[in-house]
Amino acid sequence: MPEFLDIDGSVMEGGGQVIRLSISLSALLSIPVRVSKIRAGREKPGLRAQHMTGIKLVGEMCQAQLKDVFVGSTQIEFTPGKIRGGHYKADIKTAGTISLLMQVALPCALMADAPVTLDLRGGTNIENAPHVDYMDMIFRPLLQKFGADFTLQIHKRGYFPKGGGHVTMTITPIKRLNSITLLDPGTVSTVKGISFVAGVLPLKLANVTCEGFKEKLQNECKELNIRCYKEDTEISPYSCCGMVVSCSLSGGDNGSGGYIVGGNVLVPRGVKAGQEEARKAGQQLGDQLAATLRARSCLDHHAQDQVILYMALADGKSAVRTEKLTLHTKTAIHIVESITKIKFNVHSNDDHDIIECEGLGYTNENIKGLKRSNSSLGESNDDIEDTKRIKTIPS
């Protein structure tokens, strides 16, 4: 019988983040984990569909043995094997967000023995979570700082409550992650993004959302390039209104190039959304980004907690300047420290925090060697053989 590392699923934020980090690190470090009291403080405790699907997805990727992985389960066991490349399919079958499937699977895919393709279905633009557009526009450039990358293709949009979105993500494994230093954001360059409507909603709402956003950002950046449009009904058959923005910063740390911060928002009430709701949503996003810029943060609040796992795995010391730590980030640090046994140091200031850690220098032993180096994306992977394994993750 394996010896499990026991993890309290109700600790701190007490939600899906505890599960995602535990499963990713279990697969990467070959540590069997038992997560109990899952979402104990929530209105509906236990696994929801998106958590279950994420566990099963990573389970397939690393040939894990699973126990009690079903909707409503309050305790699971996960015993990992070797992470394998291939083509994997996962369908949440609800509006559960696809971006959170990416969060749990991407670190594992980067350390597979061959390229990975993920066909993911669920919600693409969901409230209180990073949109898939955010993952491509803001998180991907951040991941490139670590020497890793992915490509993303959106086939169909999925919104609450029906979901039905479809995204393909492709990842080439790497040997190791670079450490990062993101302490000086430099100056604001441009803000760009999209403001969209879909379904029966009029284009006017996208314009009003954009106007609300610009009201709050005009003192922070003069060049605001937001594209307002209506989604094609073939891609987005259901109604939704929202906005995703990215802000380019010059970045002054060791000539490492610019940084990108951003965010996303949805207009509430769906088909009943009006101009007042649209303007308030745009203003909310504008306030969030303005706060990030005023704090001279190199990470926005969506990226803040996501970067913790990659800092822990990286080769060398990483340091990042953020806004004040969110509960999600504090939870991420707690879980990552508990599993990896490394130590994060947080230096608190009036309007920002600095997070530091000495990474594990994790090396991908699933691949034998890499033939050449690429300074912008880390090390290349010429000797990795592609596979044609296709696996479907059951719901």
What general form does the structure show?
globular
Low-confidence stretches: 370-395
Helix content: 25-40%
The SSE order reads EHEHEEEHEHEEEEHEEEHHEHEEEEE
Structural class by sheet pairing and helices: alpha/beta
How many helical stretches? Answer: 8
Note the gap between the termini.
27 Å
Mean pLDDT: 90
What is the gist of this entry?
The protein is α/β, with parallel strands linked by helices and 395 residues long. It has helices at residues 16-29, 49-61, 98-110, 132-145, 203-217, 275-294, 301-313, 327-340, and strands at residues 5-8, 33-36, 65-67, 76-79, 86-91, 116-122, 151-156, 165-171, 181-182, 188-198, 224-230, 240-249, 259-266, 317-322, 344-348, 353-358, 373-374, 378-379, 390-393.
Plain-language structure description:
The protein is an alpha/beta fold and 395 residues long. Helices cover 29% and strands 26% of the residues. The chain has helices spanning 16-29, 49-61, 98-110, 132-145, 203-217, 275-294, 301-313, 327-340; strands at 5-8, 33-36, 65-67, 76-79, 86-91, 116-122, 151-156, 165-171, 181-182, 188-198, 224-230, 240-249, 259-266, 317-322, 344-348, 353-358, 373-374, 378-379, 390-393. Helix 5 links the parallel strand 10 (188-198) and strand 11 (224-230). Helix 1 packs parallel to helix 3 (98-110), helix 1 (16-29) runs parallel beside helix 8 (327-340) and helix 2 (49-61) runs parallel beside helix 3 (98-110). The longest helix is centred in the C-terminal third of the chain and has 20 residues, at 275-294. It starts with a strand and ends with a strand. 51% of the residues are buried.
